[in-house]
């Protein structure tokens, strides 16, 4: 039987067609000019990306690699340390992904987490078995002899566990430092060889001292010193962009979102006026967003910006359309058409060879790597540019997580509202108006949406919410009473959600008083709206957006 999750893993790491020509498929470094990495070997963990993020929070550069990487492939990345992640398999199952014992003779410090800990134990001659006491969730950890990794941490602490199997005997030379009811060996270390591991998950927030554990291993046992700060990332990326682009002209489509704004700002930092940005205002943005790009962003960066006001075209194409897929198609098509025309104009003047895209590291991991440069013919972010406009991509964010992108944006002095912005769909408010899109309805929704955003910000809750669509049920009417008179207005739906990655989401339990303020203000200040409702559906089954 194949190890559980093997298919999903294989799919995740399958090389993209055409990618990886410079290095073995699936294992390219994400970008030149990055520091030596702490490699996270992914055994199909729920949390591989989270581990890499935690390492980066310790100011150490980290990359994720598939467990199928051989020792020599790992060493080819020149790692300063290696972390073996958790995973769904049992180490003693027939085709469980293993760890080559040769890894432990390379002098690279190695830390094992959960499955990685068990695999390490087994590879070095320890034993792993089912103790009959599985542990899931918060679990008391008893520290018998703290050693280096658990030094100065409470003798009894809660850790997050998720395991069926346990290490029952540590390999020779390892000190057992802690246990739990279901894990007789819950942590071990051999500091002379700079090897250690834990059965619990230090990377999750439910393990209160988890970050201390990682810090002690990486700083104290492995002896690493920070090499990854916002400033160093900017310097490294600026150098890499200059090396890639030379003195050629570069184009970037700004969406108003965080990623394209920060990507463009980095490129501008590197090559200044060689960059031209194009902003297509489709008239479906929220209150203040077009101004943020046209005025505040340009003022903050000095970027050369071409604004295409295409609101009228988009609205006339959308007239009378109620079907969500139709709306999305029309907007996608018009966007490409408009951007293409602008790109041609800019290219004719500037001789553009490069196109900036805000691809993030999670996209790179999910698609199995990438070489950093690819000649695009069909490209999903900008979409459908014709063959005679083939640019080479510049992707300065492809080593970065979203929170790092935000930190860099702040450091580059971008407007806070832009840097902290929640994700917003490309088709904009058109898919938050249930019914046909008209200028009047856009005005109504903009007003209601602004109130919700203002109150969320005033309550200090922006960071707690992933996304907060406000939806206008434009084809629904509802009876109300306002000023002793009957009204017949429209309902709006509040759809605040929490999420890690938008793949799944839950409705956000906003405080009642915040919801009450939003409701009162919307019905008072937006004359056509006389009812405010709250969407309490998780995803699945409901998507975050209504259309
Ligand atoms: N599959 C292993 C177990 O159940 C490891 C689990 C994990 O890595 N979370 O013990």
Describe the structure.
The chain has 547 residues and is an alpha/beta fold. It has three domains: 38-221, 3-Layer(aba) Sandwich (Rossmann fold); 230-369 and 376-420, Rossmann fold (3-Layer(aba) Sandwich); 431-534, GMP Synthetase, Chain A, domain 3 (2-Layer Sandwich), CATH 3.30.300. The protein has helices spanning 6-13, 48-57, 71-76, 115-123, 210-221, 230-245, 258-271, 289-301, 311-318, 324-350, 361-366, 402-411, 416-419, 439-458, 512-525, and strands spanning 38-42, 62-66, 81-84, 110-113, 127-143, 156-169, 175-179, 187-190, 195-198, 249-254, 275-281, 304-309, 352-356, 392-394, 470-472, 478-482, 485-494, 497-498, 506-507, 529-534. The strands form four sheets. A nine-stranded mixed β-sheet has the order 2-1-3-4-9-8-7-5-6, with helices on both faces. Helix 9 (311-318) runs antiparallel to helix 10 (324-350). The longest helix has 27 residues, at 324-350. Mean pLDDT is 89; it is low at 1-30 and 369-383. Glutamine is lined by residues 86-90, 114-115, 162-165. The active site is at residues 114, 201, 203. Pathway: Purine metabolism; GMP biosynthesis; GMP from XMP (L-Gln route): step 1/1.
Summarize the structure.
It is an enzyme of class 6 (ligase). The chain is an alpha/beta fold.
Which fold name is given in CATH as the topology of the largest domain?
Answer: Rossmann fold
- Determine the number of helices (DSSP H or I, runs of at least 4 residues): 15
For the largest beta sheet, what order do the strands appear in spatially? 2-1-3-4-9-8-7-5-6
Ligands: glutamine
Low-confidence stretches: 1-30, 369-383
Strand composition percent: 15-25%
Mean pLDDT: 89
Distance between the termini: 41 Å
CATH architecture of the largest domain: 3-Layer(aba) Sandwich
Helix/strand class: alpha/beta
**Helix fraction bin:** 25-40%
């Amino acid at each position: 039987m194949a190890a559980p999750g093997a298919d999903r893993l294989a799919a995740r790491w399958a090389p993209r067609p055409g990618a990886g020509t410079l290095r073995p498929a699936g294992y390219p470094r994400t970008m030149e000019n990055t520091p030596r990495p702490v490699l996270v070997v992914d055994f199909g963990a729920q949390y591989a990306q989270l581990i890499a993020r935690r390492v980066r929070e310790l100011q150490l550069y980290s990359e994720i690699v598939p467990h199928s990487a051989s020792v020599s492939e790992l060493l080819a990345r020149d790692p300063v340390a290696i972390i073996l992640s958790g995973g769904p398999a049992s180490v003693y199952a027939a085709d469980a992904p293993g760890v080559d014992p040769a890894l432990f003779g390379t002098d690279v410090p190695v830390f094992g987490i959960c499955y990685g800990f068990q695999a390490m134990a087994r590879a070095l001659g320890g034993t792993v078995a089912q103790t009959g006491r599985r542990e899931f969730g918060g679990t008391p950890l008893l520290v018998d002899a703290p050693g280096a990794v658990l030094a100065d941490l409470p003798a009894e602490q809660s850790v997050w566990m998720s395991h069926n199997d346990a290490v029952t005997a540590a390999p020779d030379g390892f000190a057992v430092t802690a246990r739990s009811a279901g894990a007789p060996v819950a942590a071990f270390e051999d500091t002379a060889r700079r090897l250690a591991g834990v059965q619990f998950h230090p990377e999750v927030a439910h393990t209160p001292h988890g970050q201390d554990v990682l810090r002690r291993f990486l700083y104290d046992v492995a002896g690493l010193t920070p090499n990854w700060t916002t400033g160093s990332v900017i310097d490294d990326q600026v150098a890499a962009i200059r090396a890639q682009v030379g003195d050629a002209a570069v184009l970037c489509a700004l969406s108003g979102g965080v990623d394209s704004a920060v990507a463009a700002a980095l490129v501008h930092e590197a090559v200044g006026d060689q960059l031209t940005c194009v902003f297509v205002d489709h008239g479906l943005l929220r209150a203040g967003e077009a101004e943020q790009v046209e005025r505040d962003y340009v003022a903050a960066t000095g970027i050369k910006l071409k604004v295409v006001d295409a609101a009228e075209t988009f609205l006339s194409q959308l007239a009378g359309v109620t079907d969500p897929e139709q709306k999305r198609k029309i907007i996608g098509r018009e966007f490409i058409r408009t951007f293409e025309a602008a790109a041609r104009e800019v290219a004719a003047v500037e001789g553009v060879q490069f196109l900036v895209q805000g691809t993030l590291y999670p996209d790179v991991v999910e698609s199995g790597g990438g070489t950093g440069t690819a000649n695009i013919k069909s490209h999903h972010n900008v979409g459908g540019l014709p063959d005679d406009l083939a640019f080479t991509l510049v992707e300065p964010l492809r080593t970065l997580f979203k929170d790092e992108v935000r930190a860099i944006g702040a450091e580059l002095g971008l407007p806070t509202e832009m840097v902290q912005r929640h994700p917003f769909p490309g088709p904009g408010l058109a898919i938050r108006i249930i019914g046909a899109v008209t200028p009047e309805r856009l005005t109504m929704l903009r007003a209601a949406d602004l109130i919700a955003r203002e109150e969320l910000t005033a309550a200090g809750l922006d960071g707690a919410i992933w996304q907060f669509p406000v939806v206008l049920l434009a084809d629904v009417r509802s009876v109300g009473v306002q000023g002793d008179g009957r009204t017949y207005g429209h309902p709006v739906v509040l759809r605040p959600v929490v999420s890690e990655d938008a793949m799944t989401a839950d409705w956000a339990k906003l405080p009642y008083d915040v919801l009450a303020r939003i409701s009162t203000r919307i019905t008072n200040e937006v004359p056509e709206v006389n009812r405010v409702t709250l969407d309490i559906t998780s995803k699945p089954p409901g998507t975050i957006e209504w259309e």
